[in-house]
Amino acid sequence: xxxxxxxxxxxxxxxxxxxxxxxxxxxxxxxxxxxxxxxxxxxxxxxxxxxxxxxxxxxxxxxxxxxxxxxxxxxxxxxxxxxxxxxxxxxxxxxxxxxxxxxxxxxxxxxxxxxxxxxxxxxxxxxxxxxxxxxxxxxxxxxxxxxxxxxxxxxxxxxxxxxxxxxxxxxxxxxxxxxxxxxxxxxxxxxxxxxxxxxxxxxxxxxxxxxxxxxxxxxxxxxxxxxxxxxxxxxxxxxxxxxxxxxxxxxxxxxxxxxxxxxxxxxxxxxxxxxxxxxxxxxxxxxxxxxxxxxxxxxxxxxxxxxxxxxxxxxxxxxxxxxxxxxxxxxxxxxxxxxxxxxxxxxxxxxxxxxxxxxxxxxxxxxxxxxxxxxxxxxxxxxxxxxxxxxxxxxxxxx
Length: 399
Known about the structure:
The protein is α/β, with parallel strands linked by helices. The protein has helices at residues 37-51, 79-86, 99-107, 123-127, 130-137, 156-164, 171-185, 204-210, 221-230, 245-258, 300-311, 332-347, 357-365, 380-386, 392-395; strands spanning 17-21, 28-29, 32-33, 55-59, 90-93, 113-116, 142-145, 167-169, 191-195, 216-219, 261-263, 267-271, 282-285, 294-298, 315-319, 351-355, 374-376. The N and C termini lie close together (11 Å).
């Protein structure tokens, strides 16, 4: 694995200023934070730096203000939620550089925390502008990146600062990079990947990369229908990208030449309408789908067979559900396979890493999220990592 410095590599930082990039792009309703998961993810890094006596300045973006000051996107709105999670007072600074930040640093004591304003209020942030980087860096002694979810962006506070100051990975970033290395960087083989979701088009690069990396590729969700159609199966009214069947066949051929086995469901749960527990619900072989039916989940036999595949593997990467899991009973295959993966992880025979919004929701729904080896809350960054792309925010930390 490529090496990067962590907080364990810090010397004496008493009174030194840490510029810490975190993810505070939080879900809000009526001006209040509705989910503090991302704040909690940053706590180990913040507490570690505070205990070491650093002055901690948090840098983050919120929404897409496009380089303008938008009052409804000010990070002043999240200060209360951060104070509640940290259990201590947090200063808000309405700038990210310049004399106002300098004065605030003068007021802070070692172990204190401040949140700087939304970095995207400045046009130079998304442009990775050297002048802005220099101005922000002027008020800091070292840089810590704890926002893997923003690591696929080459912005001033994710990439530029890491090159301008001594740079370290925060605890959350460190855990993420170590988990991802175990999953696809240097995994214990055999490796299985579950890729689900509605559209092949959104995960083409993921599929093309994975067939060269894994031993078993399990395709689920609406994507599976496109692959079934490519194999000549009539999928009826199912969600299917018929224009991509050629691409699906290319991916299947690439898998074949790489020695990767692709698994598609051979029994499916179908219905004439997409509704909870519809009267037209039935389970059938994939070759028996009627013209007026749609495939909404993998069938029980397929789910059991996929569970047997996982039993032969040592590593699992999961992104996307196997069916329309938001509505019963089309969550059955996802829940069954998730429970198998969790049980194998608890037994110690499988390292399981999952990521992406729908995936996290599906694993929480199955009640097994806590049993997986690692769950990434990053969306875009996790997908780009699965595509084999270099993430600028990670590359900038490497020594």
